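[Automated response] Your request has been received and processed.

Submitted sequence:
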Amino acid sequence: MLTKITNHQIYLEIDSLGGQMVSLRDVHGTEYLWQGDPAYWKGQAPILFPIVGSLRDGRAEINGETYEMPRHGLARTRQFRRISAGTDTASFRLAADEGTRAAYPFDFSLTVTYELADRTCTQVFTVANEGEGEMPFCLGLHPGFNIPLEADEAFADYLLAFPEAETCDSPTLDPQTGLVLTDRRRPVLENSSRLPLTRSLFAEDALVLENLRSRRASLYSLKSGRGVEIAFDGFDYFGIWQPKDAPFLCLEPWTGTATCDTEDDIFAHKRGMTLLGPGESRRYTFKITLL
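Generated structure:
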């Protein structure tokens, strides 16, 4: 089921399958969100929960038992229930059931609220532990943004910029297992706030920036100035990904990463894991502003 909201500056469509955005357009009709062509990637803006990336062999140990979970978790393939909708806001919720407990044995709720103001879409995510024991989880976002946006532009005309000068590198993802290879690293930025975009950046899969100081990033054209600015307070990791020669770029805030090659297979030990006590909840905010 699709839900459409607008403030007449921007137009947003949300699919109850995965609770994800499927269209984000401005007043002129320009589509900023990737439209899921399976020739490159059939996703659009999946919500990653309760893991980001891959587990080793797709399995992890929870409370002494082994559970299987697909890459990026459960939320992206399940129906969210719409709990409210207005002209410029809508909320959706995913709650634990028998199907989720078979892979993730916890009673949880994941609520996402979309709100529009001027040219900004704000997403508020609330993860709650509805059970009696401690609950580990990670949350990640995976939106793809169309580039180029103009017919006379090219991918190389776009730049990714941060508000602060950054020095950071990225571990490599194993192409077979999806695990993070912690000792195989590549430089990304050296005391610079600007990352020129080239196809070769993604020759070894996604960049995983672990030590950014900035919690905002702008993806925009050097010719037209059009693009998006995102704000991701509360997310410690930032992924950047593009399939080979694709006409979009994914900007991905995460609270954790795929399993590292140096980690064991106990779910709660995964890097970046958040532990919620009974009755506790955690809130995260992600903003997209159209430039």
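Summary generated for your ticket: Helices lie at 98-101. The longest helix spans residues 98-101.
If you did not submit this request, please reply to this message.
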